[in-house]
Amino acid sequence: MNYPNLTAEMSRLGIKKSDIARLLNKSAPTVYAKFGSRTFTTDEMIAIRDKFFPNATLDYLYSKAPSEVTQ
User: Fold this and answer.
1) Reported pTM
2) pLDDT tens track for 28-61
3) Fewer CB within a 10 Å sphere, N or C end of the chain?
């Protein structure tokens, strides 16, 4: 999955994928894969939002890139 809003917010606040890996107690390659071909679980999404982006909605953070939306 590509999460353009999550990636943009991470960049804006200086949050790295390694920070997310530490929060989720996952390896860096696992988290990197979740930004590519795999997806975050709902619990992981909530944990990331609650820790780093408490004012954002899940819908906003985890919206798909336009090229990934199917009709």
Assistant:
1) 0.86
2) 999 999 988 888 999 999 999 999 999 999 999 9
3) C
What is the H or E stretch that residue 24 is in? helix 17-24
Per CATH, the architecture of 4-62 is what? Orthogonal Bundle (1.10)
Domain ranges of the chain: 4-62
Q: Read off the DSSP letter of residue 55.
A: T
As given in the structure block, the two tokens for residue 14 are 């200086």
Tell me how far apart the alpha carbons of residues 58 and 71 are, in angstroms, rounded to a whole number: 21
Q: Report how far residue 49's alpha carbon sits from residue 66's, in angstroms, rounded to the nearest whole number.
A: 21
d(CA 61, CA 11): 13
Integer-rounded Cα radius of gyration of the chain: 11
